[in-house]
């Protein structure tokens, strides 16, 4: 029997580890208040269903449609992925995602995009090692940048 060979550009190990670390951390700190969707479709609009690295979505059964609301969306950006994350910012802003983070591995920081409008995000703040970020929809939940970025 001849098998299928699917050629997909895999994430590099550090990229994948950041996603695993953040997924585990979000489950810990938000304990049963959310679902974490990893690299699965997000219904941003009728004609756009990006697959963010992480989407923190309301708990629910999404049997008829993909989630169209997210508490937080996170993309992990290596040098080759940086432009794609920036273009996705417009899509997520138009979809009303209030908290969009880019884990910027090139500059070793996390960019937090907030205040979505039809034109994009009104606020962008960079967080560096040693700093902490409160989730917009869960202000009691604060995450250390050092817990997300890979050692380095």
Instruction: Provide a count of the helices.
Output: 2
- The portion of residues assigned to helices is 10-25%
Order of neighbouring strands in the sheet with most strands: 1-2-3-4-5-6
CATH superfamily: tt1808, chain A
| Uncertain runs | none
Mean pLDDT, to the nearest integer, reads: 90
Please identify the structural class as seen in this structure.
alpha+beta
Gyration radius over CA: 15 Å
Shape: globular
Structural account:
With 152 residues, the protein is of the alpha+beta class. It has one domain: Alpha-Beta Complex (tt1808, chain A), CATH 3.90.1570. 20% of the residues lie in helices and 28% in strands. A six-stranded mixed sheet has the order 1-2-3-4-5-6. A hairpin with a 2-residue loop joins β5 and β6. The radius of gyration is 15 Å and the shape is globular. It starts with 12 loop residues before the first helix and ends in an 8-residue tail after the last strand. The mean pLDDT is 90.
